[in-house]
Amino acid sequence: METQTIKNEQNTTTVTERISGSEAIVRCLIAEDTKIIYGYPGGAIMPVYDELFKYQDKIHHVLTRHEQGATHSAQGFARISGKVGVCIATSGPGATNLITGIADAQIDSTPMVCITGQVFSHLLGSDAFQETDIVGISTPVTKWNCQVTKASDIPAAIAKAFYIAKSGRPGPVLIDITKDAQLDEFDFSYEKCTRVRSYNPVPKTEISSVEEAAKLINAAKKPLVVWGQGVILSEAEEAFKAVIEKAGIPSAWTILGASAIPTSHPLNVGMVGMHGNYAPNVLTNDCDVLIAIGMRFDDRVTGKLDTYATQAKVIHFEIDPAEIDKNVKTDVAVLGDAKASLELLLPLLNENSHPEWRQKFADLYAIEYEKVIKDDIHPTKEGLTMGEVLHQINVQSKGNAAIVSDVGQHQMIACRYAEFNKTKSNITSGGLGTMGFGLPAAIGAKMAAPDREVVSISGDGGYQMTIQELGTIFQQKAAVKVVVLNNDFLGMVRQWQQLFFDKRYASTEMVNPNFVAIAEGYYIKARKVTKREDLADAVKEMMESKEAYFLEVCVEKEGNVFPMIPTGASVSDVRLE
Amino acid sequence: MSTEKQLYTISVYTENNIGLLNRISAIFQRRHINIESLNISPSEIDNVSRFTIVVNMIEVDVKKIIGQIEKQVEVIKAYYHTLDQVIYQISGLFKVKSELLFEEPQIQNIIKNSHARIVTVNTDFFVLEKSGKKEEIAELHEQLSVYGIMQYTRSGLIAVTKDEMRISELLETYNN
Ligand SMILES: Cc1ncc(C[n+]2csc(CCOP(=O)(O)OP(=O)(O)O)c2C)c(N)n1
C-alpha cells in the first residue's frame, strides 16, 4: 500500500493512503467508533463485505436473516446505547427491504446510518439488474440521504451522515454508494464532521422563554407534565427529575418516554394516550398548566385535538422548531436541548408539592386499579392474561430488564405494566407501530448491552413477521429472552373488530405453528405455558437462563386492553370497559 | 393571523444539491397542497439556490409548512410573504402566425399597448414575450386568443421581497 503525506493549508499534516472506496467505507465506520453492524450481502455491496472480512477484528458484522431485521437490530442497538446504529445492504431488493426500519427510525427519532450498494454509475437510470432508485424511495423517510458515485467523496459523505444522524433531533440517514465508487482507489484521509452549513441542529435556548415557563409553572395550581423521548435523547433524566421534584408536578409519559424516571417514582403518574392510564388522560382536561417536554403531541396521545387540554396554558420544551404549534397551540415554546433548558429552569422554580392535585391522580388510579389493573395482573378467572405475564417478569427481573416489545395488545400491556428502574429500558416501535420490530430489536439491544437482561415480548402475529431472526440469535449466541403472548388472534385488530365492527373477526384469527418446535429447530431452549400454576416457574427458568430462551404463553383469546380512548374521542372520554 | 386562503410566496434558500427539489415538493404533496408555481434559480449568494413557491393557503398552515421545510438539513432558511409584500414578475411567451402581424392591423396595436417584446420573427411565426403581473399576461392572452395562438407558456412567479432577508448574515452565524 502506497502511503504519502501531504500538507494542508493550516500546515497540519494529514496522512493519506491510497485505498479502495470499499476499504474507505470500513475505515470510516471504524473512525466513527462503530463496533457492530447489521446487514446482508449481495452483488453491489460485495467489495465492502470483502473488506469487512479483512477488518473483522475491528468491526463485528451480524448477518441477519432479512434486511428488515438488520434495521430493527440497529435500532434496538441505538435505543439502548444512545449511539448510532449501523446497517448495510446490497442494491435493489436489499435496499428496499430496509425501508420499513428506516421509516420506523425516522418517526421515532432513532439515529441510524444505512449504507447501500448501488449498480455501477454508468448503469444508473437504465433499469440495470438490481437497480432501484433507493435515494428517491428513501427520501421521505430519512433525515438526510445521498448517493455517492466517486470513491473520493466517500469519507465526507459518511462523516456527514454520522453527524446528521446523531445531532439535534436524531434520525436515520442513508448513503447509496455505486459499485465503481467502492472499487476505485483514491487518497484516503478522514475527518469527522462537526458542522453542516445549512443545518442548525440545536436551537439555542432563549432564557426569556424559560423565565416565562417558570412564571407559569410557579403560578400553577394544577400543573401536569407530559414527557416524551426527548428527555432520554438529550440525556436530561437527572435534570428532569430535579425539576419535577422541586416543583412537585405529577408527570406522565408517552410510550417512548417510558423509563426516563423509574416507574416507582412518586411523581410518575403513568402513561398518556389511547391505552394510557386513566388519571393522566382524564386530568389532562383538568390541569391548568400542561408542560410538554420532548414529546410531539402525536394523535395517539392527544385524541381529538379540539378538546385536548383547551383549559390549560401549554408550555412546550422542544428541540425541533417544526413541532411547535404543529398539533397543539402553545403559550410558551422553549426551543432547545431538553437538558440545557431544564437546567436553566430548575433554579427559577419555587418549591411546591400540590398535595390536593396529586390526590386526584391517586383517586383515579384507585378506580383504574379496581376496574382494570387488578384483573389484568392478579386475575382470578380462568385464562392467562398478558398482564400477569408482565407481572411475573417484573417480579423476576426486579425492574432491571430492558423490555423490547412488538406491536399490538401485548405492546400496550407491556408498556402499561413493565416496571423500569433504568432509563433507555423501553424499546418499542412507537410512531410507526411496526409489527416484526420486537425480536430483531431485542437482538440489537442485547448486543449493545450484553450485561443487561433483555426480554422481547411479541404477539403471535408480529413474531411471525420476523421469526427468521431466531437464526441470528442462534448464530450470534445472543442471550435474548423471547416471550410470545399467544392468543391465536391478531389481538389488537380483533379488539377493534369486537368494539367497532360488531365482532366481525375478518382475517384476524391465526392458526399457529408449533412455536416451541420452531425455536428448538434453531437450537434455542423453549417452553410453552398454558396454565397459571406453571407461569411463575417458567418465567423464573427463563430469567435464570444464561442463554437465549423462548417462552410461549397461551393467553386468553379474547382479552382486551383497557383503558381505551376510541379514535376521535376526547382524552377525558377514556373508557375503562 | 389571517384565516383566509390567499396566495403566498414561499422563498427557500438552500444548498445547491441534487435531491432537494424532491424533499421539498414531497412536503407539499404529503399535505395535499397544490403548488401554483415553482421556480428554482441561483440566488445572490454563491452556491446557494433559491426556490420561489406560490401556494394558496391559510397562514397557520403556511407557517407549519415553513417549519417542515426548514427542518430539511440542506435548507438554509425559508420565508413566506403575501403578494403585496413582494415585487414579482411572471413571464409569458406567445407564438403567433406571422401572417397576422401583417394582415391584422389590430395586432400591432396590441403589441404596442401591452409593452410586449418581439423575441423573434420568421416566415411562419413570431414570438412575443411579456413580463408582468399574472393579470397583465392573462389580458394579453385574451386579446391574442381572438386571432389564434399557436403556442403559449408562462413561467413561474419570481419575486424579491420588500424587506431584507439577511441570508449572508445568517450563514455567518452558522459558521461560528
Ligand atoms: C407491519 C404491520 N402490519 C399490520 C399492522 C396492523 N396491526 C396492528 S396491531 C395488529 C395485530 C397484532 O397481533 P399480534 O402480533 O398477534 O399481537 P396482539 O395484538 O395479539 O398482542 C395488526 C395487524 C401493523 N401494526 N404492522
CATH superfamily of the largest domain in chain A: Thiamin diphosphate (ThDP)-binding fold, Pyr/PP domains
Order of helices and strands of chain B: EHEEHEEHHEEHEEH
CATH class of the largest domain in chain A: Alpha Beta
End-to-end separation of chain A in angstroms reads: 71 Å
CATH homologous superfamily of the largest domain in chain B, by name? ACT domain
Number of strands of chain B: 9
- Return the average pLDDT of chain B rounded to an integer: 93
Radius of gyration of chain A: 25 Å
How much helicity do the residues of chain B have? 25-40%
CATH architecture of the largest domain in chain A: 3-Layer(aba) Sandwich
Catalytic activity (chain B): 2 pyruvate + H(+) = (2S)-2-acetolactate + CO2
Pathway (chain B): Amino-acid biosynthesis; L-isoleucine biosynthesis; L-isoleucine from 2-oxobutanoate: step 1/4; Amino-acid biosynthesis; L-valine biosynthesis; L-valine from pyruvate: step 1/4
GO molecular function, one term (chain B): acetolactate synthase activity
Family (chain B): Belongs to the acetolactate synthase small subunit family.
Characterization of the model:
Chain A: Residues 406-553 form the Thiamine pyrophosphate enzyme TPP-binding domain. The complex is a heterodimer of chains A (577) and B (176). Chain A is of the alpha/beta class and 577 residues long. Chain A folds into three domains: 17-188, Thiamin diphosphate (ThDP)-binding fold, Pyr/PP domains (Rossmann fold), CATH 3.40.50; 207-360, Rossmann fold (3-Layer(aba) Sandwich); 384-554, Thiamin diphosphate (ThDP)-binding fold, Pyr/PP domains (Rossmann fold), CATH 3.40.50.970. Chain A has 23 helices and 21 strands. Chain A has a six-stranded parallel sheet. A six-stranded parallel sheet of chain A has the order 12-11-10-13-14-15, sandwiched between helices. Chain B is of the alpha+beta class. Helix content of chain B is 35%, strand content 39%. Chain B contains six helices and nine strands. In chain B, a hairpin with a 5-residue loop joins strand 2 and strand 3. The longest helix of chain B is centred in the middle third of the chain and has 13 residues, at 59-71. In chain B, the strands form two sheets. In chain B, strands 5, 6, 7, 8 and 9 form a five-stranded antiparallel sheet that branches. In chain B, strands 2-3-1-4 form a four-stranded antiparallel sheet, sandwiched between helices. Chain B has two domains: 6-86 and 159-175, ACT domain (Alpha-Beta Plaits); 89-154, ACT-like. Chain A, domain 2 (Alpha-Beta Plaits), CATH 3.30.70.1150. The interface between A and B is medium-sized, with 23 and 23 residues. Thiamine diphosphate (TPP) binds at residues 406-410, 433-436, 459-462, 485, 487, 489-493 of chain A.
